[in-house]
Structure formats: structure tokens, C-alpha cells
Amino acid sequence: MLKIAFHPIYKHSLPEGHRFPMLKYELLPEQLVYEGTCTEANFFEPEIPDDSHILRVHTEAYYQDLNQLTLDKRAARKLGFPLSADLVKREIIIADGTMKASEFALKNGIAMNIAGGTHHAYSDHGEAFCLLNDQAIGARYLQHKKLAEKILIVDLDVHQGNGTAEIFANDPSVFTFSMHGKGNYPFKKEVSDLDIALENDADDATYLKLLYETLPKLIKTERPDFIYYLCGVDVVASDKLGRLGLSLEGCKERDRFVLQSCKDAKIPVMCSMGGGYSPDIKIILEAHANTFRVAQDLFS
After folding, report:
1. How far apart are CA 233 and CA 282, in angstroms?
2. d(CA 145, CA 158)
3. What's the whole-model pTM score?
4. How far apart, in Å, are the Cα atoms of 160 and each of 154, 194, 202, 288?
5. Residue ranges of the domains in the chain?
6. How many other CB atoms sit within 10 Å of the CB of residue 25?
7. Are 272 and 134 in contact (CB under 8 A)?
8. What residues does the Histone deacetylase domain cover (predicted)?
9. How is domain 3-299 classified at the CATH fold level?
10. In tens digits, what is the pLDDT along the chain, a chain of 300 residues?
């Protein structure tokens, strides 16, 4: 059964002024149940994990500053959200959702987190709405538990996974692949193991051709035993923070190809939702819902 991490704090802890497009965290589970893609049995509620799992990725000083709300003003401004105890708790629970979903993926082939994809969180600071790097924490969790050795992170959000690249720099046990908009944030990119930067308005054909050529070779060469997939839908043409030109169908085909590639290679995959900022909430929901629909079609 497809298992999906979801906790009420995903939708209730965001400050006023940041509710849209964060409404997706409230509406997406409802949509998936309403249309019959999922039932309540598909969802599980993450908790507060042991701090040791987070400290395998983030420095003790940074994590302490988050928990005690003692970040200096400059570091706090980089977060994008006003720093609060509820916000920190939310990110900690999201990380637990990704860790637990990783174990479900080992059992079922795939698992998902309604939130997550916080790839701008570095080991020692956060930025751009990302406080803790959930997929990095998940990767280290699996390695610590000896549930996986070689991990591939496939980051297809429109923004480069700069924090993820920094965390795993010079670490051959985790291969970081980021395919993103060249003109998008972050404007000073880090160096992933493989970066593909696309020009503005890259369409379905351009994007998918590169993905078709790249991902199978990566899987064959790197031979991971676990894959994290960051499936941000801010690649669609209508996204107000993205600069690419994919259609909803192109975005869905992207998801289908990634998940089919994982299934064909018999490699478990854990998906974090990442970004989506189209002005019309219906487009955000449809794009994200497509990821879950594809997952159910392929793995049920």
C-alpha cells in the first residue's frame, strides 16, 4: 500500500501572509481522498523524532539556535518565514515523515510525504522557506540504520538543491542530481554531483529529452540501492517563482518516467513534494495530485 506522511501541523503552523500557496498542504490530502486516488488508510502521521537523526546532517549550533529561537537577525531573515516554535516543530515533524516514509518505501517500493523537499537547508543554516533538509536527514537515517548504502537524490524542483549539494559535497555514498532553471534562485549555485541548468521557458520536449537521456544512465552508473525524488511542480509554465515552460501533462510525464525508472530498476523511491507556486491553486493541486495518481497506477 502507498503510504503518505501527513500531519495537521503541515497546514496549521504557517504564519499569516504565507497561507497561499501553502493551502496545498490542507487541500491536497482532501482532493486525493475525494477523487478516490487514496483513502484515509494511505496516510500516516509523523511525530517528533530523536534529535540524533537531525544532528547527523545539521550542526549542533544551528539546530540549537532553531530550537531556542536564537538565530541572529540576518540568519533568521534568510528563512523567508518569521521564526517561531511552531515553524521549527513543523520542520522537525516533516523530517520524521520523510524518515518513516523511507522505511515504508523499502517495504512497498514507494512512499511519499505531502510536505518536504526542503533542499535549500544547508548543514549550518536555512534559507528560502527551508529550515531542515528532510531528504538529507532521510538519507543519513537509512545509512545509519544500515538500510541503504548508496543513495541517489533526484531533485527536479525548478530551483537547484543548493543545501543538499553542500551537505553531500565530497561524499561518494550520496549522489546529488539537480535539474533546474538556470535563471532561478539560488542565483549563486552550489555544485551538485550532476547539475543540469535549463534555459528560461524550456518546454516539455526539451526537458523530457534531457531527463530520458540522463536518469537511466545515472541509475546504471551509480547503482543506488535507494532513491529520493524531489518532485516540485514549480516547473510548470504558470508558476510565478519558476522560469520553465512545462505543461501539466509534461510534468506528469516527468513523474511517470522517474517512478517507472525506479520500479524497473527495483530501487525503492521516497518522494517529497517540493515547490509549486502557480497563482491558481487548482493548477498547484492538479500538478501535485498527478504525482500521487502516477504512483498509485504504477505501484498499486
Report:
1. 12
2. 31
3. 0.97
4. 11, 11, 16, 19
5. 3-299
6. 23
7. yes
8. 24-280
9. Arginase; Chain A (3.40.800)
10. 999 999 999 986 666 655 555 789 989 999 999 999 999 999 999 999 999 999 999 999 999 999 999 999 999 999 988 899 999 999 999 999 999 999 999 999 999 999 999 999 999 999 999 999 999 999 999 999 999 999 999 999 999 999 999 999 999 999 999 999 999 999 899 999 999 999 999 999 999 999 999 999 999 999 999 999 999 999 999 999 999 999 999 999 999 999 999 999 999 999 999 999 999 999 999 999 999 999 999 998
The SS3 assignment for 197 reads strand
Cell output for 189 = 549555485
Q: Which set of grid coordinates corresponds to residue 258?
A: 522517474
Report the relative pairing of strands 110-113 and 226-230 from DSSP bridges.
Answer: unpaired
State how far the Cα of 159 lies from the Cα of 81, in Å rounded to an integer.
18
Name the grid cell of 28: 491536497
Note the residue count of the chain: 300
Q: What is the CA radius of gyration of the chain?
A: 17
Other beta carbons less than 10 A from residue 64's beta carbon: 13
- Partner residues linked to 9 by β-bridges: none
